[in-house]
């Protein structure tokens, strides 16, 4: 009885407003459940049709998209006793999601969904398309999450008007065709927790304006063509947990300010052009669990200059292909959580501290190949059994393997490939 009375009350209000000529109250559906306004429903259906094709009309949905048979990828909240769309995900995100058609169109009705907080597109834009900035500004006051994932047809620059989306907490632009420089207006988005611009064709220098993004936890600009030096304003990202700038064209010295990122757990700078040696300020980031600096020309930097033992939380350390010299620092053998150690393809010399490295309780991968180590490898058969092909020591001309390590003929296959027997 209560539901019936509630429905008739809404219907009476609707009729009263019609009689006075006020069209501001949405027309309700004929459901006894919480209704969705007619305008909201028609805007939603038209917007979806633009992406999936006119063959879909929502006729199988009863009583409404947020009731008993909701659309996969559509979520709603109630405002003034009516359903409004708050989350919209288009594309094959879920198994039963509606796939986008190759001839999709962005209809104006999409921008009438003015209660949207989250909007995402996955593998929708396959044909070349430039995002028009005019209509999108309608979302600036409410949208908290915006994602474009795997849309190779999205080309052109990211619109400068993105800086108007001041409520955004998550901005993900992953594996698309965007190019050009990043608009400096992204630094206006003070509420951001996550920025992911990975795997596009962005180029140019990274804007040096990140000092205001105090809430940022994740910054991923990997797999682009960014050039120039690392902005000093990165040092102001005091909440940052993950910084991934790998696979770009960045160069110059690592800024001293990088040591101010006291909460950082991942720093990935691999495959760039950084030079000038390892910054001693890296050792100040004691929260790091993954440090990946491989394939940067660090100009014969001596590894002994870093207090590695102070980075006691390291799980992954990859400093391969950097031109590093000197001996293996004994501080590395104090990293009890270390699982992966990549020292390969450098100019490291001296003896390999086999017993100390083997004593690391978590070590599961060790690469020391492509250096100038000398002497004997003194790892046990048990170590080789555990590591398998995750241990490499080849291309060290003056390094040898004692025969007595492997007792029986049947275990000779455990010997590291490319290391000569000691004579």
Describe, in plain words, how this protein is organized in 3D:
The strands form two sheets. The protein has a 19-stranded mixed sheet that branches. It is of the alpha/beta class and 423 residues long. The model is unreliable at 1-32 (pLDDT under 50). It contains five helices and 24 strands. Keywords: Cell membrane, Leucine-rich repeat, Membrane, Receptor, Repeat, Signal. It is found in: Cell membrane; Membrane.
List the topology elements.
Blueprint: H1 2-19, H2 38-52, E1 74-79, E2 82-91, E3 118-122, E4 129-130, H3 133-136, E5 145-156, E6 170-180, E7 194-196, E8 201-205, E9 218-220, E10 225-228, E11 242-244, E12 249-252, E13 266-268, E14 273-274, E15 290-292, E16 316-318, E17 325-326, E18 340-342, E19 347-351, H4 354-358, E20 365-367, E21 372-376, H5 381-387, E22 391-392, E23 398-401, E24 420-421
Parallel strand pairs: 2-3, 3-5, 4-5, 5-6, 6-7, 6-8, 7-9, 8-10, 9-11, 10-12, 11-13, 12-14, 13-15, 15-16, 16-18, 17-19, 18-20, 19-21, 20-22, 21-23, 23-24
Antiparallel strand pairs: 1-2
Tally of strands: 24
Low-confidence stretches: 1-32
Overall geometry comes to elongated
What is the H-and-E element order? HHEEEEHEEEEEEEEEEEEEEEHEEHEEE
Helix/strand-derived class? Answer: alpha/beta
Q: Average pLDDT, to the nearest integer?
A: 88
* N-to-C span: 95 Å
Largest β sheet strand count, sense and barrel closure:
19 strands, mixed
Percent of residues in β-strands? 15-25%
The helix content is 10-25%
Taking all Cα atoms into account, the compactness measure Rg is 29 Å
Annotation field: number of helices: 5
GO biological process, one term: response to fungus
Pfam families: LRR_1 (PF00560), LRR_8 (PF13855)
Subcellular location: Cell membrane; Membrane
Main location: membrane
């Amino acid at each position: 009885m209560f539901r019936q009375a509630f429905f008739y009350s809404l219907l009476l209000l609707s009729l009263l407003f019609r009689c006075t000529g006020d069209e501001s109250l949405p027309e309700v559906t004929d459901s006894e459940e919480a209704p969705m306004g007619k305008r909201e429903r028609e805007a939603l259906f038209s917007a979806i049709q633009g992406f999936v094709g006119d063959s879909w009309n929502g006729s199988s949905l009863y009583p409404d998209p947020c009731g008993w048979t909701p659309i996969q990828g559509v979520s709603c909240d109630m405002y003034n006793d009516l359903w409004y769309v708050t989350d919209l995900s288009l594309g094959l995100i879920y198994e039963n999601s509606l796939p986008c058609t190759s001839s999709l169109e962005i209809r104006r009705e999409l921008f009438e969904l003015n209660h949207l907080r989250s909007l995402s597109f996955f593998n929708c834009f396959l044909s070349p398309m430039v995002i028009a900035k005019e209509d999108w500004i309608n979302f600036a006051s409410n949208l908290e999450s915006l994602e474009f994932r795997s849309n190779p047809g999205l080309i052109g620059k990211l619109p400068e008007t993105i800086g108007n989306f001041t409520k955004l907490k998550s901005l993900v632009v992953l594996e698309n065709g965007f190019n050009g420089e990043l608009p400096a207006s992204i630094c206006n988005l003070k509420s951001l927790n996550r920025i992911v611009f990975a795997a596009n064709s962005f180029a140019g220098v990274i804007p040096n304006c990140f000092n205001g993004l105090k809430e940022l936890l994740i910054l991923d600009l990997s797999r682009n063509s960014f050039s120039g030096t690392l902005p000093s304003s990165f040092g102001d990202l005091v909440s940052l947990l993950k910084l991934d700038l790998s696979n770009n064209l960045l160069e110059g010295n690592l800024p001293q300010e990088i040591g101010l990122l006291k909460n950082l757990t991942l720093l990935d700078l691999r495959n760039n052009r950084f030079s000038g040696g390892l910054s001693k300020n890296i050792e100040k980031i004691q929260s790091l669990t993954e440090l990946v600096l491989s394939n940067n020309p660090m100009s014969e930097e001596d590894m002994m200059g870093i207090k590695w033992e102070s980075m006691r939380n390291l799980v992954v350390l990859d400093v391969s292909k950097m031109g590093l010299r000197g001996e293996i620092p004994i501080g590395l053998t104090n990293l009890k959580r270390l699982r992966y150690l990549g020292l390969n393809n450098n100019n490291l010399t001296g003896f390999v501290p086999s017993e100390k490295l083997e004593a690391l309780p978590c070590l599961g991968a060790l690469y020391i190949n492509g250096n100038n180590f000398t002497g004997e490898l003194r790892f046990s058969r048990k170590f080789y059994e555990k590591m398998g092909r995750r241990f490499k020591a080849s291309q060290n001309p003056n390094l040898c393997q004692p025969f007595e390590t492997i007792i029986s003929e049947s275990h000779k296959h455990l010997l590291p490939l490319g290391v000569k027997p000691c004579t």
